[in-house]
């Protein structure tokens, strides 16, 4: 049939329309929802798969919105390259799976997010991967662990631990890991823009983009950034395990990242003021915020975070019963098992993020039944405090 002959209705409906011609380009990145891409021929397919040509062929192996988002996060962190996964845990899992093998040890900082600990200590243990723990505020404790039988393949830390907000001595830990020739992965989810882990010696930086970078509670994504060679190894692992992030959420995260500096500044100011008031309240037993002089890592936090201490505050009201009464007593601040939204939320770690962890370990670390984690949003500080003050009285 000649090319210019009108097609049947069925053919017209089945085929994509031609892209409109334009001498202009959109100012905002467009959403590209295609799951598969047209390739001109077999030589082009070979070039794409070998990396000799740039482009996309199947969304699980990469797509334009993920590439744009990965480049943005890598640029923020001063990394060579990045990859976007379907969640923060997807990014951590892809990184660990790339570097770990049977008989290897993954070295975890104490007090890590519960699912990260579960991934290594339970799931990967089934495949012969071991683990050890160290104190992230004490680099010498990492040196001692690394001096044990060989096989350490990765050190995993959080800039700010979840939920106790202990501060990792990134420079010291990175130096010890480098001496031993072991890569250092930093989960930077709680501290975007507060410092730059790669400049301090980290090998990989991971973000749950679901949280502060996305910033509006409407995406589920993660990203890992680092050396180009290592990201090129993580990429096929993420594809094989089906961990790649989807185009729409990538587009939403790009949009959310636009206001990240403003949100970090505002929430850091509000969080510090709320932490001070919570610490002074007679019904609060202890308050954890690195900006407080009472915080055990305050001096380290002042050195690492010169422009603010972040949006997260944790405080303890003494018991699960009182924590429940406090949460139920809040009028406008919702109980939600996540963080980083533009709206302030509270969570209960023992019931959510750390559910199922060893109770004795949680008690030793200080993750108690009365602990409440606060993710500070963009509301007025007085409105937030008024809600907390009346809820504390109710509790």
Walkthrough of the structure:
It contains 14 helices and eleven strands. It is α/β, with parallel strands linked by helices and 395 residues long. The strands form two sheets. Strands 1-7-6-5-4-2-3 form a seven-stranded mixed β-sheet, sandwiched between helices. α3 packs parallel to α9, α4 packs parallel to α5 (114-123) and α4 (88-99) crosses α8.
Topology:
Layout: H1 9-14, H2 42-50, H3 64-77, E1 81-85, H4 88-99, E2 105-109, H5 114-123, E3 130-134, H6 139-146, E4 152-158, H7 170-180, E5 184-187, E6 204-208, E7 222-226, H8 228-240, H9 247-257, H10 260-280, E8 286-288, H11 298-304, E9 312-316, H12 320-329, E10 345-347, H13 359-365, E11 371-375, H14 381-394
Parallel strand pairs: 2-3, 2-4, 4-5, 5-6
Antiparallel strand pairs: 1-7, 6-7, 8-9, 9-11, 10-11
Highlighted features:
single chain; 395 residues; alpha/beta; Aspartate Aminotransferase, domain 2; Aspartate Aminotransferase, domain 1; 4-stranded antiparallel β-sheet; 39% helix
Question: What's the quick description here?
Answer:
The chain is an alpha/beta fold.
Output the CATH class name of the largest domain: Alpha Beta
CATH topology of the largest domain: the name is Aspartate Aminotransferase, domain 2
Second-tier CATH architecture of the largest domain = 3-Layer(aba) Sandwich
Strand content is 5-15%
Taking Cα atoms only, what radius of gyration do you get, to the nearest Å?
23 Å
Please tally the β strands and state the result: 11
- The number of distinct helices, counting runs of at least 4 residues, comes to 14
Order of helices and strands: HHHEHEHEHEHEEEHHHEHEHEHEH
**Major β-sheet annotation:** 7 strands, mixed
Number of domains: 2
User: Helix/strand/pairing class, anyone?
Assistant: alpha/beta
For the termini, the CA-CA separation is: 78 Å
- Approximate helicity band: 25-40%
- Could you list the spans in which at least 5 consecutive residues all have pLDDT below 50? none
